[in-house]
Design goal:
Helix content of chain B: 25-40%
Structural class of chain A: alpha/beta
Strand order of the largest sheet of chain A: 2-3-1-4-5-6
Number of domains of chain A: 1
Number of domains of chain B: 1
CATH topology of chain A: Rossmann fold
Strand content of chain B: 15-25%
Strand order of the largest sheet of chain B: 1-2-4-3
Oligomer: heterodimer
Number of helices of chain A: 7
Largest sheet of chain B: 4 strands, mixed
Radius of gyration of chain B: 15 Å
Chain lengths: 200, 120
């Protein structure tokens, strides 16, 4: 028994990555709530609401008769620039905007550090946005260089301007699941894809 | 003459530099208001390191970060190339100060950007 436990593989650790406001925490909340009944973090229309990576251990997803256990890591949005003035345009006072900007820069570093400790990632993209952003290109390049599995989540398909096909044609070498984390659309397809892609 | 300095750095020069030397060169030039074009770009790990160091140097009243754009990696053809390639082939990359450079359009084969002169 101890022998089996000693050699038992730990949970598959999956990071949820993407640019700010792609819906990463909304998706993390959906996954955690569906399989453990709790929430992961708060969401906001103001970018960089998540400024520290959060990990939830032992989330078991059952799909097609098999169970796969994940550690889910919700990461801060990746960006190459952070200007506190952008937060002031959402009504934040200057001091609060500066504090949020400082924490957001630390959050991006936090997200990058986590790349070292993952078994795979869900790359969340806003399907109303241009998919050819440097953040997407960099994350995909990193996972390909590390030869780790990647599943693209084309989020916000409930919005009229969404175009998940554009994401698929931009990165055809990786599987993609179009969903709305907010409206709970296609989430079962995502769970099937997660089990297939990361569960082996 | 008032304008924007653009430095185009060759593959040969880049290949003789360590990752941190490249990152330091890029950030020093960008913080002086220059646009840097790398003929052979950075590998994905160097790109994430560049973002990481950029974040640590952002300050409220000064540097707000970088605009960086490169083409998506080319897919390696053939089993041997996939098995033995250490890193995907890095492609042309353009980097500039976020408050001076704005990306207009990007796809697999085209990067179009608008660049303004630094404020006097």
């Amino acid at each position: 028994m101890w022998f089996k436990r000693f050699f038992k593989k730990r949970s598959t650790r999956i990071g949820i990555y993407g640019p700010p406001n792609a819906g990463k925490t909304t998706l993390a909340n959906r996954i955690i709530k569906d399989w453990s009944g709790e929430a992961m973090g708060s969401t906001s229309e103001i970018p960089h609401e998540t400024r520290r990576a959060k990990r939830r251990e032992g989330v078991t997803i059952t799909s097609n008769g098999s169970a796969v256990t994940f550690d889910i890591v919700d990461t801060p949005g990746l960006a190459t620039k952070i200007d506190f003035h952008d937060f002031m345009s959402f009504g934040l006072e200057e001091e609060e905007a500066k504090r949020r900007a400082k924490e957001a820069t630390e959050g991006v570093i936090d997200a990058i550090k986590w790349l070292e400790d993952l078994d795979g990632i869900l790359l969340v993209m806003d399907s109303t946005d241009d998919p050819f952003t440097q953040v997407n290109v960099t994350v995909i390049g990193n996972m390909e260089a590390r030869r780790l599995p990647l599943l693209i989540v084309a989020n916000k398909i409930d919005l009229p301007d969404s175009a998940p096909a554009r994401i698929h044609s931009a990165f055809p070498q990786h599987p993609m699941v179009p969903i709305s984390a907010l409206e709970n659309t296609n989430i079962d397809k995502l769970y099937n894809a997660m089990a297939d892609h990361f569960g082996g | 003459m008032r304008g924007v300095q653009i430095d185009l750095i060759s593959s040969e020069r880049l290949s003789s530099m360590t990752s941190m030397e490249k990152i330091r060169l890029i950030l020093d030039e960008v913080q002086e208001g220059k646009i840097v074009v790398l003929e052979s770009g950075l590998d994905p790990q160097e790109e994430t390191k560049l973002i990481e160091v950029t974040m640590s140097e952002i300050s409220p009243e000064g540097f707000i970060g970088i605009e960086i754009e490169s083409y998506p990696q080319k897919r390696r053809q053939g089993l041997l190339a996939k098995l033995f390639s250490k890193n995907p082939h890095a492609r042309l990359t353009v980097i500039g100060p976020a408050n001076q450079m704005k990306m207009l359009h990007k796809d697999r084969d085209l990067i179009s950007a608008l660049v303004s002169a630094p404020e006097a």
